[in-house]
Amino acid sequence: MLTKVNYEVKGQLAKLLATEDLIIENKKVPTASFDVDRRVLTLPMWEKASTTVYDLLVGHEVGHALFTPNENWKIKHPEVPMSFVNILEDARIEKLMKRKYAGIVKTFYMGYSELSDQDFFELEKNDVEDMNLPDRINIYHKVGKFVDVPFDYDEEYFRDAASKTDTFDQVLDLASELHEFMKKRTTESLEMGFNIDNISMGQGGGDATLEDLINAEKTDQEGEGDSIPSGLGESGDERPDLGEDTTEYEEPEYNPYGGEHNDFETITDKTLSDNLENLNDKKAMQSMYDTEYCTIPTLNLKTLHAKNVDVHSYLEQWWIDQQKNYDKEIQQEDNYRLPMNLYASVDNEYRLFRRSAQKEVNYLVKEFECRKSADAYARATVSKTGVLDCTKLHSYKYNEDLFKKITTLPDGKNHGLIFVLDWSGSMSNVLLDTIKQLFNLIWFCKKVQIPFQVFAFTNEWNRGEKEFDEFGNYRGYEYPKDHHEKIDGQLYVEGMFSMVEFLTSDCKKGDLERQMMNIWRVTNCLDNRGRWASHMVYQCPHRLGLSGTPLNEALLSLNQLIPQFQKKTGVQKIQCITLTDGEAHPLKFHKEFKNRAGDEPYLGTRSTTHGNVFIRDTNGKTYHCADAYYELTSSLLNQLKGRFPNVNFLGIRVIESRDCNSFVRRYVDFDYDKHKSIMEQWRKTKSLMITDGGGYHAYFGLSSSALNSDSSFEVKEDATKAQIKSAFKKSLSAKKMNKKVLGQFMTYIA
Questions:
Q1: 388: which strand partners?
Q2: How many whole angstroms from its chain centre is CA 193?
Q3: How far is residue 625 from each of residues 347, 466, 616, 636, measured CA to CA in Å?
Q4: 404 in a structural domain
Q5: 521: pLDDT strictly greater than 90
Q6: Which of 232, 253, 278 marks a domain boundary?
Q7: What are the backbone dihedrals phi and psi of residue 101, each rounded to the nearest 5 degrees, phi first?
Q8: Cα distance between residue 89 and residue 67, in whole Å
């Protein structure tokens, strides 16, 4: 049974063997190729190859990348058949790979053993003894340990010389020598089998020599050319290692005897190439789309990042305008409505919540300090001081440890927190409760002096002004500027997307409180969307309305926002927390298409969800975007983890109870015990934690209904015993969930 090939692992193997950061691409191509100038190694999708054979093929192609020069050798040796050079070059580069890496000797041995067992060279129908000399040299150096390959005394020189070449020039010289040897042997065979002087050629009945035969064959086959070989078998157009395919340097196939084969024709190279194609993933080869490799764009943070100062300047001006408009309406209505402060009630609710939240904040601080101290002492070292401990002198007869000791506690890393909040329409029912949890974390960070930054991802902030036609009809919003240059093969982030910086530790205490109140006002407008107009006396700011779920765009932007945060704060360890209640929108990438009209190609877009897309990071690592809609998010998170090893990526997912089972199943596969354990935790606390789920280091699930539950214990004055009991039970349950989740958070933060 074949194990599914991990292209990422095999790509890393190729890089390690090449001792350089090659770009590895797995595509639906028949054969491997290496672009010397771009340093791109393209490998077929050998799905049917075993791990051993795959390692053999990768090692072979890397050998060409390392040792085969990019030069047009046909200028120097136009008469030499390409297959001769390819066979001898294969022997050279495999020898050099074995010399460079002792461990690869076993890989080559076992790989060729497997290919021999599978009869890749089709030796069962092609007798080795009947093959020409170049084919037998090829068989000998690849599977000669498993097949008896005969050689004449004169042929042994070329067999042994093939394994002694160290440079490409030596390979060319030996190929030329082998070609002359084959020509000489053919001439001798002809002279022995025929009386060439009596052979009449053409209408004139002139004499024909071997040279005449060759020239005649060249005339018949003019314009036909061989493809450039690629190590194991034939190669694609991008193979630069053995020179360009130019017809004037082609050595034609000819057969003076008139049979099926001739001494200059090699069959093993083509046979192996054809059989290697059978290892390819047929589904990928027949797929509608080719394999695509997408790069991460460099985003313009000036257009994408809505800074904290700008956000709250906009909000405060909005509150002022709202109050002015209300006051103006009252004056015009002859006191139909009473004068009032539009925000008095909601601001008072904020103050009450801040007061009630201190217990949970203090709990967080306590958990943090306890876990931090425990971790420090776990890493503590104890050493002797060299000073006698007088309290132990009485035990000198049986105890040698009489010296004082000192415990050294290691310095811990300073932490920072980045919070990424889903500002989508589906969050409306839990948005206020989410903000409450967020504020708890912010107050905690302020108490323990942890730098923080809070973003909301949205498609509303960057909307332009409303546009109208000449008749005053609404035409939509002005389309915003692009965040990056559009480049073929690059992921696309729409201009409407933005990361809105709600809160930051840079603010003074008074400014922070004012900004948190601004967010509280906005959230109260949006809570239970559709109902707010009936009970709220002010309108929500237009640029902070709820939108879709551009989570994937937010993750892409973290590639630049995280280094920016690190540089500004100097933190060593970052906790990046993402909170959402649903899956992200799929991403697109730029793709150059050919115009059907025959004009210049144009730059369009294509979705990443067709299953053959890989994200390639700047370090050369690739991450596969599978067909499932949620897999792209996992790939982007894995990319972030690879680029930022000092960042913990934690996810919080608000889940409806009916969706919990399928959500957990998605990340535990068929692990029955793990699934059972997580679901038991869910039933008890209405919360769960999945380690390494969805690309996160830890993925927390919170019940939307439990999140809506207020942990405060409040009952009416005339409440019955049953109502008091129910309220108390509800309060304990909410506190239990909060402490459970927050305690798990502290495990990572501390």
A1: 403
A2: 65
A3: 45, 36, 11, 9
A4: no
A5: yes
A6: 278
A7: -125, 105
A8: 9
445 burial (CB, 10 Å; 0-12 / 13-18 / 19+) is buried
Q: What is the CATH number of the domain that holds 561?
A: 3.40.50.410
- Single residue among 227, 250, 278 that ends a domain in this structure: 278
Length reported for the chain: 750
3-state secondary structure of 333: coil
What is the three-class DSSP state of 266?
Answer: coil
Q: Which domain holds residue 100?
A: 69-278
| Percentage with pLDDT > 90 across the chain | 25
Whether 142 is covered by a domain: the verdict is yes
CB 86, CB 228: distance < 8 Å:
no
How many angstroms separate the most distant Cα atoms in the chain? 129
C-alpha of 472 from chain center: 48
Question: Which of these, 554, 354, 598, lies nearest to 454 by C-alpha position?
Answer: 554
Buried b (16+ CB within 10 A) or exposed e, 715-732: eeeeeeeeeeeebeebbe
Sign of CA dihedral 708, 713, 717, 720: positive
Q: Is 291 left (phi over 0), alpha (psi -120 to 50) or beta?
A: beta
User: How confident is the model at residue 256, as a pLDDT?
Assistant: 32
253 phi-psi bin (left φ>0, alpha ψ -120 to 50, beta other): beta
Q: Is residue 59 in some structural domain?
A: no
**Tokens 């008072």, residue?**
348
What is the 3-state composition of the chain as percent helix, strand, coil, each rounded to the nearest 5?
A: 50, 15, 35
Cα distance between residue 494 and residue 490, in whole Å: 13
First to last CA, the chain: 45
CB 727, CB 750: distance < 8 Å: no
The structure tokens 């793709």 sit at 591
User: CA torsion, points 527, 530, 533, 534, in degrees to nearest 10?
Assistant: -100
β pairing state of 613-616 and 292-295: parallel
Q: Which of 130, 53, 139, 64 is nearest to 94 (CA)?
A: 64
- Would you state the structure tokens that stand for residue 629, as one six-digit string? 């809609």
- Residue located via tokens 């920072």: 416
Helix (H, G, I), strand (E, B), or coil: what is residue 37? coil
| Burial class of residue 630, CB neighbours in 10 A (0-12, 13-18, 19+) | middle
Cα separation, 181 vs 185, whole angstroms: 6
Could you give the 3-state DSSP secondary structure of residue 155?
A: helix
The string of pLDDT tens digits covering residues 92-133 is: 999 999 998 888 999 999 989 988 888 888 888 888 888 889
- Residue 624 pairs in a beta bridge with 614
**Distance from C-alpha of 57 to C-alpha of 92, rounded to nearest angstrom:** 15
Q: How many CB atoms lie within 10 A of CB 280?
A: 19
Can you list the alpha helix ranges (DSSP code H) found in 44-125?
51-67, 82-100, 104-117
Beta-strand runs (E) in 448-560: 452-458, 466-468, 474-477, 491-492, 498-504
What b/e string do you get for 245-258 counting C-beta neighbours within 10 Å, with b at 16 or more? beeebbbbebebee
**Sequence-ordered list of residues with C-beta below 8 angstroms from that of 548, at least 6 positions apart, any chain:** 424, 425, 459, 585
For residue 698, tell me if it sits in a domain. yes
Rounded CA separation 613/266 (Å): 38
- What domain count does the chain have? 2
* Reported confidence tier of residue 88, pLDDT bands at 50, 70, 90: very high
Phi, psi of 426 (to 5 degrees): -70, -15
What burial class does residue 508 get, using C-beta atoms within 10 Å of its C-beta: 0-12 exposed, 13-18 middle, 19+ buried?
Answer: exposed
CA atoms of 746 and 577, how far apart (whole Å): 13
pLDDT of res. 238: 43
- Structure pTM? 0.69
Nearest to 59 by CA among 6, 99, 2: 99
Res 719 pLDDT > 80: no
Please report which residue ranges of 623-659 form alpha helices under DSSP H.
631-643
State the sign of the Cα–Cα–Cα–Cα dihedral 94, 99, 101, 102. Answer: positive
